[in-house]
Amino acid sequence: MTDTRSRVLIAGSRTFADYPLLCATLDRLLAGRGPVAVVSGGAGGADRLGERYAAARGLAVERYVPDWDAHGRAAGPIRNREMVAGCALAVFFWDGQSPGTADAIARARKAGVPVEVVRYADPAPPPGTPAPPARAVPQATPVAPPAPPTGGPPPPPAPRLLDRVRDALRVRHYAIRTERAYTDWVRRFVLYHDKRHPDGMGAAEVTAFLTHLAVEGEVSASTQNQAFSALLFLYRHVLGAEPGKIAGVVRAARRRAEPVVLTRPEVTAVLRKMPDPYRLMCELMFGSGLRLMEVLRLRVKDIDLDRAEITVRMGKGGKDRRTVLAEAVRPRMLLQLDEVRRVHELDLAAGRGRVWLPEALARKLPGAAAEYKWQWVFPSGRLSIDPRSGEERRHHAHESSLSRAVTGAVAAAGLSKRATSHAFRHSFATHLLEAKYDIRVIQELLGHANVETTMIYTHVLNKGGRGVQSPLDAE
């Protein structure tokens, strides 16, 4: 006989303990639905209360317990994928932070399952419990309105301000680095004004905060502009309002520093002090003109050894471009690609091996994430949890590890210049100019939108106003 029961997933964070709220929410959502079977992840908190609700209402329970022995840390995401399949509804009681619940929510939505998310605040600790350290995120949750007199269920609490900011950024497909930066600026803005909600603030408060950054914080002009962009995003796309005319802001001084350029002997001395894969990374910056993050975000398919070419995807400004691949790096690149394949095959054997892909591409090509050609050229040595999906995967190497390697190699080589990883890119452009390549060609290889940006490298060639001979050198 065919089972006609609707499968309803009830899950959420382990800290959820509000059984009356769960009952009221589920009674409202399941009214008139007919026979129901409750699907549970078998964890504490919301999952356990969902099973209690099912027992009280005489409903069947399907429990999906993660197999940690077989799948290790990937067991949770695998369990989530299996239990959302075929559900008619998924109800989550989420604290806004649990990565496991975030992963289950994302998988349910991807599977086309109708999703109801009930946000809640962590419960207060029992009397006598020491207060936890202050959280960096300001608690700006609006107070929920009282329950209607008809005795209906209370509405779920409104999401916190920073959660709303994150949601707005993700809907617009902003990068994770931008998301972290913008939410941090909103947090600092709220804390600067004694935790007042931005709904009650406007142009005057924005002006005061930006002026504080320049005068007391002594931030750079680019940092101040980023803070301004974050606050404009908050008001326009989260609060749905204009802050008003921003005037009278004390602007941070804009200083254009001369790029640090290394000679060929200096580059060689630094590279000799670097182990692989960091040496190969720096050779790509010096030999191909790549930025630090462009190197780290390279995928196997972006390397064309036959054409001696690199394709840079989503560079600065979201643009793609092609640049040269030096013949000198071919042997080390082949060894690195062999290492990538070895690590990827081990990950696949362990039930992992799915690399991060942009959301639209992941939907269009669901199997691409596990293919070798989409893997990072410089994968991290450890697995990590995706902050958005909660899925465990291998990301690319972290920028801080490369920066530390460059700093150490520069010191070991005895250079007196304050050279960072970006000095290799500066040197790429300068040496091409010295070799008489057309500046428009160099502009294209570097990915500059404006040729004036490329012109800063002419300082090494003594072009323009500085192309003069000192009187002391005159015969």
Automatic annotation (TrEMBL):
Pfam families: Phage_int_SAM_4, Phage_integrase, YAcAr
Higher taxonomy: Bacteria, Pseudomonadati, Planctomycetota, Planctomycetia, Gemmatales
The UniProt record lists the keyword DNA-binding: yes
Occurrences of domain Tyr recombinase (ranges): 257-470
InterPro entries to which the protein is assigned, alphabetical: CB (IPR044068), DNA_brk_join_enz (IPR011010), Integrase-like_cat_sf (IPR013762), Integrase_catalytic (IPR002104), Integrase_integron-type (IPR011946), Integrase_recombinase_N (IPR010998), Integrase_SAM-like_N (IPR004107), Tyrosine_recombinase_XerCD (IPR050090)
Region annotation Disordered: where it falls in the sequence: 122-159
Gene source species: Urbifossiella limnaea
Keywords from the named record: DNA integration, DNA recombination, DNA-binding
Name of the protein: Tyrosine recombinase XerC
Record family assignment: Belongs to the 'phage' integrase family.
